[in-house]
Amino acid sequence: VLTEQGLDVDIRHVMLVADIMTKTGEVQQIGRHGISGEKSSVLARAAFELTIQHLVDAAIKGETDPLKGVIENIIVGQSMPLGTGSVELFMTQRGRSDE
What we know:
Layout: H1 11-21, H2 42-48, H3 51-61, H4 70-76
Helix pairs in contact: 2-3
């Protein structure tokens, strides 16, 4: 189907999607009723579809979001916990000679 559309997709990408869709032992769709609707993050679920419904359901259940993923941190305007955003560096200056 992909090559008929003129798309050149590496087989590893198709295999990755197949692995995600079958990780529970049953085939799940990629959509709000399948994989995307099962995310543990409230904001990640709300970012996909049915925003108000996901937020209201999470509020009723008292769910909190630890803001560990990329989507959640983009929504709240924070640095993402990956790459240089995943570490905290502290620098101390020793032996300054400009006195």
